[in-house]
Design goal:
Elements (H helix, E strand, L loop, with lengths): L1 E5 L5 H15 L4 E5 L10 E4 L4 H10 L3 H9 L4 E4 L1 H6 E3 L2 H5 L8 E6 L9 E6 L8 E6 L3 E5 L4 E6 L2 E7 L2 E4 L10 H8 L2
Parallel strand pairs: 1-2, 1-3, 3-4, 4-12, 5-6
Antiparallel strand pairs: 6-9, 7-8, 10-11, 11-12
Helix pairs in contact: 1-6
Bound molecules: glutamine.
Length: 196
Amino acid sequence: MKAGVVSVQGAAPEHVRALQQAMAGLGVKGAVVSVRRPSDLEEVSCLVIPGGESTTISKLLRRFELHDRIVRMAEEGVPMMGTCAGCVLLAKEGDAEVEKTGTRLLGLMDMGVDRNAFGRQRESFEAPLDIAGLEAPFPGVFIRGPVIRKVWGDCKVLSSYGDKIVMARQGNMLALSFHPELSGDSRVHEMLLKMI
Ligand code: GLN
């Protein structure tokens, strides 16, 4: 089994490690590959789109001819997880900032997002989150994360922080405002692997 991590910009190496830890935890034999070009996506059974800068990642996805390939893979049912900037890219609807920067979203999940929505004074923080399907709270690490403003259609909320939606699932896709790869807890990555 091969898991891929989009590695054009942002927090990719941490996801590689978290996926390796999750594979070990589940007793799954597999490799994690860094995805930089279309051929890296061959035989990938699940894909992570990491945090970073969504404007930059979206540009690079097009420049490296990954954008359309990733859309096709998602439509074919390959499990995907977008964290933070990756969450923004999975959404069908952005906000004024997404519009202004001309960010082209992958547009795969029935949700609207607001970039950098936690405000200046709360740029980075950690909070325990109740996540549907996980027994104990998960340590949520937030770094200028987006808020999932709304979901519709088949997109379901998996976790909220106060009145803010911070995790959602639609079929084979997971979107998170926070950074599970920085928490030292691999349960969310295990959730992705179990979707294969
Ligand atoms: N603010 C960033 C963006 O929307 C996301 C921050 C992050 O991924 N840590 O692109």
